Amino acid sequence: MEEKELYPYGLKKSVLKELVSEQEIPKRLSEISFGLFSPSEMQRLSEIQVVSHLLFQLPKREPMPYGPLDPRMGVCNTKGICSTCGQKVQECAGHFGYIKLALPDPHAAADDLQFLGEFDEAVKLDESLAPHLNKAQDDLNPIRIMNIFSRIPPEDLELMDMNGKIANPTHLVLQHLLVPPITIRPSVAMDASQGSNEDDLTMGLGKILNINNALEAELEKGNNMPQIMEKWDALHINVALYINSETPGIPPTIVPAKPTRGLCQRLKGKKGRFRGNLSGKRVDFSGRTVISPDPNLRIDEVALPELLAKVMTYPERVNAKNIDKMRKLVLNGTDKWPGANGIIPRDGGKLSLKFGDRSRAANNLRIGDIVERHLLHGDVVLFNRQPSLHRISIMCHRVRVMPWRTFRFNECVCGPYNADFDGDEMNVHVPQTEEARAEAMTLMAVNQNLITPRNGEPLVAATQDFLTASYLVTRKDAFFDRAEFCRLCSFFVDADAKIDIPPPAIVKPMELWTGKQLFYILLRPNKNVDVCLSMEVKGREYTGKGSYEPLYMCRKDGYVVFHQSELLCGIMDKKTLGGGSKENIFHVLMRDYSTIVAADRMSRLAKFCARWLADWGFSIGISDVMPSDKLKREKDELIQTAYAECRTLISEYKSGKLQPQPGCNVEQTLEAQLNKILSDVREACGTACINELHPLNAPLIMALCGSKGSNINISQMIACVGQQTVSGSRVPEGFIHRTLPHFGVNARDPEAKGFVKNSFFTGLTGTEFFFHTMGGREGLVDTAVKTAETGYMQRRLMKALEDLAVQYDDTVRNCSGGIVQFVYGDDGLDPTGMEGRDKPVDFSRVAMHIKAMLPANGERGLTPWEMTQRVDKALNSPMFRGGITQGVRDKACSALFIDDIRRYLLGGLLPQRDADPPKYFKGCLDALVATRKRFGLDACEKTQEPNPEREEENCARVWYESMNCVERAPADEKEKDRAARERALADRQREKATLLAERGIDFTLAFPEFFAALPADVRAQRRIAHTKAVDGAVINKKGSGADARYNLLVEGYNLLSVMATPGVVGSRTTSNHIIEVMTTLGIEAARVTIMNEIQYTMKEHGMNIDTRHVMLLADLMCFRGEILGITRHGIDKMNDSVMMLASFEKTTDHLFNASFHARQDTITGVSESIIMGIPIAVGTGLFKLLRKTPSLDKEPKRGLLLDSLTDSSASPSFTLDIASALAATSSPIS
């Protein structure tokens, strides 16, 4: 109905509103300013002055007026009402009060701000000042400090980096103390007889008020100075404890027995405001329970318990298409799934469906209402496992609601989560808006994250039982009749797809199909499916070595060949189905088709393998680890041979005939050689086990296919456990000159130093068991210690790299616009788009795919001239050289990549017909970096990505071993012959020199003739050994014959002197001391050294990380022209955002300094945006959309009632308006 009610003077309500209406536009914080409150500002901010130290009025226990719990500062219970604003605790955030201090008190943070400088320079000029320094400090009481600060002129404040208007030094001396609202220091009521539990801040304020009132009383008397000074000191101590309860220097008699939480303690730490409530917080619409496997689910699905689906709801808006569905859900109510828990009408309010008439609610449902419905099949949720070490620790799954109480998902997705099913728990979060659902499905879906950004290898892939079943079903002896083959084909799909049965592999005497043909059905169920997989790869069991390449005729069927989706030969194992390999069939399907195709085939494989393995049967028992008599004899022979070698070495050691290795003494040489011999025994026993076990042995099958275990595990179970190590060496001597009392003094034989010759099947002796527990204990301690170390390292890397992103100009910048890289990774390519090892396209595999898809069919081959012409024409097109095509600018490929394409295409590999060269660059174009992608966090996460085989041991630390590497100059071409003739003599002299050096004889000075006759590398060693800051040098020979080179491993510092030593090639000298490299060779050399050290460490731990991630980390550490460590000090220099630094470490220090220097923090980075609740300016939160709108005929702006008062020409109109308003009024107006 039209509103007919008239207001005074006959004006509509909207007209009066317009007089005082405010423009409701979106507001966004652009910056935060820090400063110091003046006493007058504290008074203006506060509602009351707090003067009473009493909390309650007795006996009613009502809050004392003007006390710390005065209701004018807010309320903390649900029933109370704020006396200032009249609101309840849900709407009232609280109000401040203030305490006027009887005497000024310096701020607790002012002790750390050394703006007065030091007295050292003054004492140097006049030593007579030294005895008076203590007196000067005694005279600096708060009143005198405030007077000194007040006399500082404004121009001097600028030199002190202070802003007198915002942060005056006099404000560091407190004259007023703010009392925080009651809502942040709630009073917890208890039984009537017991009173209430008060917050530490409230009790601290009570003490301060009590002392302050007593001090005021003493000041009024004015005749007891000792009492005044004593209470003044007590006031200072209590104010300091109120601000920081961990203030140092507090007398033990005053420190409270129970630790309290001051204002600083509420801000800093893991549970403080920044990290516990702002950067991360507890959320609604989330659940957590135990996980369990379900191979029948698709890899992008997660099974949620029905109980959880009825609690976690999604607010769906009612429209014309879904209103009938929503009414059915409302009728089901809260207890029946699928149902709904509540309705939010479009005109406000909320209706619960727990109680009341649901039929009436369903009938009254209107378009525009919101129904809080239960989770249904196909809904979008986020699935997460902690610790979230990389971005694919949280991914988007589709819901499947099922009974029981656990989360279930496909085992193929265990890799990104690093999950197992031994009691792990995971979290699920339900996005609450359509925008969040769309973004989750687009960016976070499992199908979009099959590949790890670490190096572009697939991380979501077949695992464990799936690999075992695939290995068994693709053996050469796996045959099935028609009925069995059809039944197995039905395992792939749940009767929801058409399958074309291929012709049998064997026709007579009966039709038989092979297990390899099942993979054809897996990839291409029928002829309408356009999936053509063509590839060749060497499997784990490929027998080719060196120049011997049997390929298709491998006796173990280890060469895998797919041609047009048919598996022609080869056994499927971890290399072709599992993660960590770019030769994986799912990786190839992703490249040639899409991630959806790869995910669909992976889901089919999981269903088939689980069902086939349950049908075929696969288990392990004690008979599988029972060694044969032949194996026992072979093991005994291997152990006896190793024992004989060990006894020979020990006898040589005791007789003094054992020659020490370079850089080692005789004892270290003995231990190294014994350790090597005994470690090789276990390897040899494992090889013997592999050769002797039956092909159907369960542990052997798992080790061969890569699903679980290795040769060493089989050897320990069946043959011998092997040498136990502690800290990388044999078991040390825990007693006096022996490991255990069971052995003789100084015993060095294998049994006495931790060698376990028994297997787990035969059982360990008492001493062997004890040695084995020593090695196990070390592993447990290492895991516990490294978990904490790597966790902190992960956090530091995350904070340093979080705001790096690729901009629209292809540069990598931080949030303040500082350029870290001009082009990401020097080539602008995405590591996830690398098809080959550090190459965007694997030309050979793409050529094979195109040959299969586009056969020659009798066409004539291209001549070399035609081939060259076609290739040059394609490579000079805008697609590769860059340019504008249909209004869109294409990025240019690098000249190196174009040269690689030309070299490959013109090499004669594809002369059969007119191949399409753009096919070959698809990988390069796909790998071009996406604008504004967060490569900073990718670099951090991929150095910390979990590895299931080395669970928490994956540390991204650069281990700076204290050894520099110096390469000797190669012999001149003219001297090669002479060098060859003298090599034998030089080797003998080198051995003598090393032996003399080990015995402590300085032959450089004692035998100058001998020194002159030594080879050049030995002379260089002795010169370096006498260099300052060098502890020693060891010669290391690399290569043999004419290619022999000698490295000097130098322990110590002084790189410049080592490089300048005669006989040393300075251009090939490297050091792992980053700072010394920078001071000697410059910042670019330091950057390269950082990259080399990180990659060396990763390689030694068996990890492969794309060099672009390492390059970004090195560039971040060097882009300011100095080496900045990923520590609190380095991060302080990398970023000047107060909020980011406060959320990292030393929270209160950063806030105090920012207030003292009146800093302004622009909210541009990741951490500060999260804290302030602002969308992060990275990825989907960055781009701005400009849209040209058509011009609209706008209505003329309506004038306001009082506008005419400022315009004399409008007076008649004003009079007429009033007259018409009076005429329309039914009642007379006086």
Automatic annotation (TrEMBL):
SMART domains: RPOLA_N (SM00663). It catalyses: RNA(n) + a ribonucleoside 5'-triphosphate = RNA(n+1) + diphosphate. Keywords: DNA-directed RNA polymerase, Magnesium, Metal-binding, Nucleotidyltransferase, Nucleus, Transcription, Transferase, Zinc. One of its GO terms (cellular component) is nucleus. InterPro entries: RNA_pol_asu, RNA_pol_N, RNA_pol_Rpb1_1, RNA_pol_Rpb1_3, RNA_pol_Rpb1_3_sf, RNA_pol_Rpb1_4, RNA_pol_Rpb1_5, RNA_pol_Rpb1_clamp_domain. Pfam families: RNA_pol_Rpb1_1, RNA_pol_Rpb1_2, RNA_pol_Rpb1_3, RNA_pol_Rpb1_4, RNA_pol_Rpb1_5. Its main location: nucleus. One of its GO terms (biological process) is DNA-templated transcription. Residues 170-474 form the RNA polymerase N-terminal domain. It is found in: Nucleus. The keyword Transcription applies. GO terms for molecular function: DNA binding; DNA-directed RNA polymerase activity; metal ion binding. Its EC number is 2.7.7.6. The keyword Hydrolase does not apply. Component of the RNA polymerase III (Pol III) complex consisting of 17 subunits. Belongs to the RNA polymerase beta' chain family. DNA-dependent RNA polymerase catalyzes the transcription of DNA into RNA using the four ribonucleoside triphosphates as substrates. Largest and catalytic core component of RNA polymerase III which synthesizes small RNAs, such as 5S rRNA and tRNAs. Forms the polymerase active center together with the second largest subunit. A single-stranded DNA template strand of the promoter is positioned within the central active site cleft of Pol III. This is DNA-directed RNA polymerase subunit.
